[in-house]
Amino acid sequence: EGPHSTIPEDEFFDAVETGLDKIEEDRQLRVRLKYQSQQSQISNVGSLHSPTAETEGDDIPQLSEDFGTGAQAKSHKLWPEIDRICTEQLTQARQGVGEDGNGWQLFADEGEMKMYRREEEVDGMVIDPLKSCHVVKGVTAREMCHYFFDPAYRNDWETTLEDVQIVDNVAPDTLVFLQTYKRIWPASQRDALFWSHMRRITDNADTGANDVWIVCNHSNQNEEYPPANQGKCVRIYLTVILVCQTYLTPGKDSKTATRDDLTCKITYCSTVNPGGWAPATVLRAIYKKEYPKFLKRFTGYVVDQCKAKPIMY
């Protein structure tokens, strides 16, 4: 990858696609091995312990009551930007995709999942905004956002990740990450530096929803954070929001509902500038293939993680 690359675009795409397929195969193998290991442990425990009892208390975060309010992050110098970007992104996420001829094009339609993009370039670099709508049964908005926000689980569902560092622990609901991604030849290796904030939305704008949670990620560069494009990595610049709404079966509430009564409506919006010199046609072809796989993989992972655990609102 570079301004003078002699690799034809079709060969560039084929090479990147092969690299991504290999990463996905490795992930599926890890999942199978992990499942076999868990099944082996359960069978070894036998009747001495119930598997449900083993996992029931696991993974329920013990967080303070002000988690998701930003109360502990408000004294940080990043807070004005975090608050402003979160509000802007939530407003945009709530807007429809067919209004005012605003250029959204449907590019993936698989059951409940629909994905739209709008073609945009800056200085010849593809930064197409993406908007996805999905509906998932059996999990809550908070659970979906919990697994998206918490770095402890990120390697399980974000397949191209090589390393995650927390460079600023602003608050329990607000972190600054430096993420390094695996190099996929012939593309250069990438990294991203961004703050991530998880928030409960209490403006009552979502009619019928039991609760609404969001996670917003936005690239940031402060003096004390690692600078961009200083080493082998090309810096990615991103703005992402995951908006999740919990809906309950009519007649149920958070105390009486079971997982069968839960529906989580998801809106995922992202604008990513990948940096570097990858051809526009190659980037669009990769996005078209990889984004639907990503959203299905992530939501499926959350459903699988939650099914044997108490409901978290």
UniProtKB/TrEMBL annotation:
The keyword Thylakoid does not apply. Its main location: cytoplasm. It is found in: Cytoplasm. It comes from the Eukaryota. Residues 100-298 form the START domain. The keyword Cytoplasm applies. It holds the Pfam family START. GO terms for cellular component: cytoplasm. PANTHER family: CERAMIDE TRANSFER PROTEIN, PHOSPHATIDYLCHOLINE TRANSFER PROTEIN. This is START domain-containing protein. It comes from Anopheles epiroticus.
